[in-house]
Amino acid sequence: MTRSTESPTQPGQVAFTAVGVKKHYPGVKALDGVDLEGYAGSVLGVCGANGAGKSTFAKLLAGVETPTDGEITVAGYPHAVRNAAEAEQAGVLMMHQEPLIIDDFTVGENVWLYKLREGKDIRPWATKTDTNSAQTREVLHGVGLGHLSTRQLARDLGPGQRQMLSLSRAAVATHKIMILDETTASTSEEHFNDILELVDREKKAGTSIIFVSHRLNEVFAMCDRIAVLRNGKLVKVLNAADSNPDEITTLMIGQALKALDRPPRVQTSSAPVLEVRDLVGGTARGVSFDVNHGEIVGLYGLVGSGRSSVARTITGQRKAASGSIKLDGTEISLPTPGSAVSKHIAYVTEDRRLEGFVKDFDNGENMSLVVLPKMSRIGVVRPAVERKRVRELIGEYQVKGGTSTYTRTLSGGNQQKVVVAKWLETDPDFVVLDEPTKGIDVGARANIYEIIHRLAGRGKGVLVVSSEAEELLSLCHRILVMRNGVIAAEFDPEEADTDDLIRTALTHTD
């Protein structure tokens, strides 16, 4: 197979060097003084619990983010990498967790996407890329997609096929460093074998590969060395052959932390507010659980475990393939988000920027968006009523900014409070919060926790979906751990710690 690469380094030589790399966000030290090297013809695994800084490091190496301090240099490139364009020039190819696929392009066009992006095909004197060539079909065969037609639209592909299609570009894109950032989260075991073969070809060609993952069985199958990050710091770099999953897990976790400051349980009814039985939807398969009135239940799992599929299916964001959902003892159907709202079920999305608020709306417009009928008379919104209620919400939820401040200009924490306020204004009986503190600072986290406590205190049922074990241990009355689309275990936070949750979620325990 033709492979496009440029590698001034020989196997075993240094391909990139990170020195004193720091990355700080408001209230968060994502990376704090990391020194790390990658070698040509070798695979470096980067592991850590959620929030450890592993994906941040990958983004810095790829130039997607700029270090707050320190620098990353690539062998053969004249200066430190400062942005994505320079990283590409230096020979860094990044494969993201969410694959970059153009739905309206064919499979063949997606293979050659980076070549098409160069604009050469629009020049009259340039040789047009043949996206239906024998080389294209060979490239697809190399990632387990040889059965696909190159003229098929990419929109018809499943998640695993989309990821493999993205990975196929490694065969036609010039590079000497390849980053795989959680790229196996949506792939099957069969496709993982294709990834192993791809990585083996890259190693033989002298590529330095960085594999960012929480799946320790895959890390040990693929990597030569393993770097463990914890709380933004590099804990240790080990040879994979001299280590094991239990050692890496212990390094990732550090000292196990017990739950603290959990709110008291306030159960206002003996019957559950929500009963889920044999639910199938997305990557969730056969999930059953209850949530009681006044109870905060945590749903923990790693990327691809099915936790978000459950959250979206029980709130009408995704239609269930099978199974049943009961609200206060009555079976309900939730074909759309609107049907969930009408039944007093609220969903706070994990992607607030894409789904949480309207970017061209101000705080007032976003906060009142779902409850405009309450503020209207014969179909006409009463501005005075709307403004008064929004001012009350801004004070109640401690949102920085007035009613006319555009939500998009706020910090992540204040944006999240706007989103939470919007949905809780519907007065739901059951609330799902998907990664409610993702990307927000410590102060905003405390505000969100207080809101969740108040909800439970009023007898509402609350499901908190999170990838942070410590958060759920301190917040919830019960924790369900998902793995491979099913609930693998249930824990009482009084008797569990982070070690229990993470070990249960890691696929190497299967």
Automatic annotation (TrEMBL):
Keywords from the named record: ATP-binding, Nucleotide-binding, Repeat, Transport
GO molecular function: ATP binding
InterPro entries in alphabetical order: AAA+_ATPase, ABC_carbohydrate_import_ATPase, ABC_transporter-like_ATP-bd, ABC_transporter-like_CS, P-loop_NTPase
Protein name (database record): Sugar ABC transporter ATP-binding protein
SUPFAM superfamilies: P-loop containing nucleoside triphosphate hydrolases
Domain ABC transporter intervals: 16-256, 266-509
Species per Swiss-Prot/TrEMBL record: Antrihabitans spumae
Short name of any one Pfam family annotated for the protein: ABC_tran
Presence of the UniProt keyword Transport in the record: yes
CDD domains in the record: ABC_Carb_Monos_I, ABC_Carb_Monos_II
SMART domains: AAA (SM00382)
